[in-house]
Amino acid sequence: MAVFDARGPWAIELPARQGAAFHAVVAGTCWFTTGDAPAHQLGPGDLVLLPAGARHQLSSDPGLPTRRFDEGLKRSLIRPDGELVLDGPGARTRILCAGYQYATDVTHPVLGLLPPVLHVAAAHPDSGPWLRSILDLLAHETRSRAATGSGTAALRLLDLLLIHVVRAWLDTEDVAMDASWLKGLRDPLIAQVLGVLHERPGDDWTLDTLAATVNVSRATLSRRFTHHVGEPPLTYLTRWRLDVAAHKLRDTTLPIAAIAHDVGYTSEFAFNRAFARTHGQPPGRYRRHAATNRQAESVRGSTPVA
Question: What sequence ranges are listed for the domain HTH araC/xylS-type (predicted)?
Answer without folding.
Answer: 191-289
